[in-house]
Amino acid sequence: MEVSGDPGIPALHRLCTRALSGALQSSGLTLLLSLAAHCSGPQAKVLSPGGLDASGANLWASANCSLLQGFWCQPASQLPRDQLSALIQRLALLQVPLQAWQLSCLANLASRCGLQDDFTLHPPNLLLFYNLSQVREADCRAFICRAAQGDVELLSHLPDQRVALRRAAGACLGVARPRLSASDLQLLGALVCDMDSSSIGAADPRVLENLRRCPRLTAAQCIALNSLLAGGKTSLGHLTSGLSLTGSCGRGGRGLGCCPAGCGGGIPLVGASRGLGGQAPTGCSSCLLGVHGGAGAPRAGGPALDPTLRPILCTRPPGSWTLEGLQALGPLATYISPHLWAQVQEAVGLGFFHSVVASCRVGKLGQREASCFVTSFLESKTKPVSSRPRLSTGEPCVRGNITAATLQDGLFLVHYDCAELESCLDGRILRTNLDTLLQHPLPTECQHVVKAKLAQSYPQGLPEDQLRLITSLVYLYSRTEISQWSITSQDTVVALLAPDVALENQTEAVLQKFLEHNGTVSGALLLAIGGTRLCWMSPQQIQTIHPQELRLAGALDLSSCPQSRKDVLYAKAREAFGSSRTPAAYYRLMRPYLGGALVEELRHLAQANISMDIDTFTSLNPLELQSLDVGNVTALLGHNVGDLQKARSHPTVRAWLRSLNSSTLGQLSLDASPAGPTGPAHGTRGPPSTTHQALHLVHTSGLPTNDAQASTSGMAPAPLRLGPLCPGPSQTRPRLVATPTGLSTSFVHCLLG
What is the pTM (predicted TM-score) of this model? Predict the structure, then answer.
């Protein structure tokens, strides 16, 4: 098969591939590199012809990250065991950011080759997809500790695997615990993000280190966090010094809250010597290390730590918080309630406010998180909404007119509320300083003020140079208002459709204005705005895309598309890739678009030995899947058929399983009862249920189990109680209630987006 002749491969990639092929001695490696270059397309950097040294003992030793990011499972399945092992270790060394569909099939390849025992050398994200039934009891804690460094959100299409991972962690802990200790928390890592509020409240104070790794907290978790902070007993040791508001654990999941030395990979934690209060309160026994303890001196019964680490200190009540301590909280500080901010010393609160605005201006903190913090902080400094005068126009400016210098002040939003912004901001200053103003994380009320003033300044619609600056305001504009804009540049489209700023109607309206001037959407623009925006284009707009542009765009993530859009995109992709010479080449190109495939094509692919990954399978049209029998699906998934067990609660898989009779299910060794609830699991951030999954650890030294459940799980019951995580855009938000920690309804709505 000569893949380099297929459509869509950039000429330079083909040239490099031919040069590499002449140098490499292994046909398996040659094929894999060829397909990697093919798959990566414009999204990866080109590997120079001399990038691999064929004379070296390990051909993967010099493979670069850009090339490996285009990894494809089918040719990788042809590699000998030692070369597959070298590939996986290279992925770990370079911390190559693979996607879920790549990781799931790679995990199955590693399992087939017996490589799971080398998990300490493998990427943490890959461990999330491993067959947990093959984890030996002796390796349980080390395995879970390393896996918990990964991005658990990658399991969004494998809800049962996420449940099983959490249950495996519970089994590693040995017995049910009413309170998770510091060592438990080090083991669980980001899995703590699945804990409910009561478990968080009862955990060791070091739970804050775990919560920093959560992409988002639920309202209930936020309440628990504020209760912990209010009590003054939280532990903030081993936090990175200086302002760090990104919430990142580093590339590959390493960093804050990750495993200490000697735990599944020996990744030390970087320490800072102060907590919220700046020093340890007298008698603070909940710290892992006391203020008088030497560096590396463990608490009685606690885990051994890196001797280079500095002591862990405990927090104090809000009135004793310091600026350094607040900065150590990182992204968790954006969840602090108005009730607690009201207790913080004014100088400390203002200093932190200034640092948040500075981080937002340079892109270290997202506008959404910063706006939530500003909303909470300002609520703590003002009267209740019901007692404040309504925002009105025409009021005289009392505080003083806003100037360009005023807008440079990091405390601008503290000095001017939204009513004063309306009365004190002149149109000329707004027009010439719009970018500076919008660098501030404006509360929603203030955003409406700015939008109204822009309408006064530009009654015929905003000029294009100003449109590129209003990214944070786009969601406020109607289709009618957008129809007055002139959008001629791709740069303007990219700015207006930045992630998380425009809704479906705005996306379609913005693209329509661009199409009126340009006629079509280029592959570069599709790549820049992402697959989600492609999902929100109208069918008529999708039809304007030339097939060549789809080829140039490469693989886009269309998993969030409604079925109606998947159908249209599939038909368009067929125009672009239907002439591929082999089923394998066709599948590689069509994979993102197969959500619109008909049953006849799925049967054809099943006969082509493509081994479809489970992420692609769950994106298929559920109605078309109903016509596939067990033989079709088994052939379609190939080596990945075992992943049905990990995804049986996914709506697409669950619907297909329910269409089968019990005898047919027996052929798959699956039962018809999903591990999750009857409601949708797809797209949620948390596991769908706490129901047991039929899964077993390999016992080597008598891991304790619950006798009542041993016949189905072989695991000890997990000590965690889980609650649903933050709802996605299409889910119903929980009813908000008054809380003793002072979380107002507006603040919680801000947190939930």
Answer: 0.73
